[in-house]
Design a protein that fits this description.
With 122 residues, the chain is mainly α. The chain contains five helices and two strands; from the N terminus they run βαααααβ.
């Protein structure tokens, strides 16, 4: 995001992870990770046909499609919805929320850019 209030390059998280031949790295924007759980992403990667030379394209396409489906689904309890409800204290039982005047929980995905990169370690 451009502008004076946006994060700088110094705010980025940097990870050094050992990898092995055959590992699949999935990198994505919040449009992916706010709408898809890690387990769901892992299932999509694991179910891909690794004998196909273009398997990374299949994984990217499937992940983008799934994230988009979740983003527009107002009844889906997305990772974003869970985090928003926890931040607002809405994970409490309904009777406690009613006592505090908090009757509605956030549901649905989060519309956002969806960027997915998949790397296969050779």
């Amino acid at each position: 995001e451009l502008g004076t209030d946006s994060d700088s390059i110094d705010d980025a998280d940097v990870f050094l992870l050992p990898v092995m031949q055959g590992d699949v790295l999935v990198l994505g924007s919040d449009g992916l990770f706010d709408n898809c759980y890690h387990d769901e992403i892992a299932e999509i990667v694991a179910s891909a046909d690794r004998s196909d030379a273009r398997v990374h394209d299949e994984i990217v396409s499937t992940l983008v499609k799934r994230a988009r489906e979740h983003a527009v689904d107002r009844s889906y309890e997305s990772p974003f919805a869970v985090a928003a409800n926890e931040a607002a204290g809405l994970e409490k039982p309904w009777w406690e929320r009613v006592q505090n005047g908090q009757t509605r929980k956030y549901m649905g995905g989060k519309m956002d850019d969806i960027i997915v990169l998949v790397y296969m370690v050779l």
